[in-house]
Amino acid sequence: MWKTKSFSELSTKELYELYHLRVATFVVAQKRIYQEVDENDLKALHVFYQDDRIVAYSRVYKEDGHVTFGRVVTDPAHRGIGLGDQLMTNVLTAIRTHFGHLPIEIEAQVQVQGFYEKYGFKTVGDPFIFNSTPHIKMVHEALKV
Fold first, then answer.
1. Does an H or E element contain 145, and which?
2. What residue stretches are annotated with the N-acetyltransferase domain (predicted)?
3. In whole angstroms, what is the distance from residue 127 CA to residue 123 CA?
4. Is residue 32 a part of any domain in this protein?
């Protein structure tokens, strides 16, 4: 079932599961040492798919006159069945509902740039290194309500 919750609405089990999935992917599997849990979690909307546990996730939040999202992840055992596309649909719905008047800016890992281009994101500038991984800034116009 797809859910969108603020930080304070998350159960302790949901919080554990989303942190577990994020750390397993972005720190352990990608071998990146950085502070994965940060203050943005407190202000974000957390969009996720939960069956018996959370298997797809992203967070969405307002930042400096735009809206952004990140920590986009699907559990490796659940890849290839369309959850990534469903996740993006739910992320964009959350943005349209809560932040539709704001433009969208993201910092995407370069290897998934094409995925975001499918949803109308445009590349801005040159790739840069963030947390030891090549990233690219991408933008999308506001999703008017």
1. none
2. 5-145
3. 9
4. yes
CA 17/CA 6 separation, integer angstroms: 15
The reply to whether 69 falls in a domain is: yes
> Model's pTM, two decimal places?
0.92
Q: What is the CATH number of the domain that holds 52?
A: 3.40.630.30
Structure token digits, residue 79: 């890849």
Q: Is 40 left (phi over 0), alpha (psi -120 to 50) or beta?
A: alpha
pLDDT < 50 regions, the chain: none
For residue 92, tell me if it sits in a domain.
yes
d(CA 60, CA 105) in angstroms, rounded, equals 11
The CA distance from 108 to 111, in Å, is 8
Say if residues 49 and 55 touch (Cβ distance below 8 Å): yes
pLDDT, tens digit, for every residue of 58-89? 999 999 999 999 999 999 999 999 999 999 99
| The pair of three-digit structure tokens given for residue 29, joined into one six-digit string | 């599997």
CB 20 within 8 A of CB 5: no
**CA 42 – CA 61 distance, rounded (Å):** 10
